[in-house]
């Protein structure tokens, strides 16, 4: 019969004796707080395309101050994810030197006044609108008081932003 030396058997028994046996796990509870902000998808303006207003080639410099040169600003507003009907619309841009409510054009004494449903929209100022009935926007050429206009092409640019209230 082959006997194992006592030293070989004693070592595992001593380790088992001093290890304390199987450990008992205690139950620990913790409170987990989760904060989530769910945002509605952004409004889509004009399907992401630029909005262009064309005054044509027949603008007479001598008739601008009469106010006859006015065009619709055609745009599509899609805010389907809005929970409420009220939105903020802002037309951002640089005001003309002669009138801060008028958009600066590339000619010094020429500007563009923007209006919504017949009321002047001040530049860079949020305007409360209804998603279900967005305003009809118009752009009107404006001449600086006492200014003079030269024949030729002109341009102006602004940023139309719509945000949830």
Automatic annotation (TrEMBL):
Biological process annotations from GO: cell adhesion involved in single-species biofilm formation
Signal peptide annotation: 1-25
Swiss-Prot/TrEMBL keywords: Signal
Top-level taxon of the source organism: Bacteria
InterPro entries: Adhesion_dom_fimbrial (IPR000259), Adhesion_dom_fimbrial_sf (IPR036937), Adhesion_dom_sf (IPR008966), Bact_Fimbrial_Adh_Pro (IPR050263)
Entries under Pfam families matching the protein: Fimbrial
Full protein name: Fimbrial protein
Domain (Fimbrial-type adhesion): residue spans on this chain: 34-165
GO cellular component: pilus
Classification via SUPFAM superfamilies: Bacterial adhesins
Coiled coil segments of this chain: none
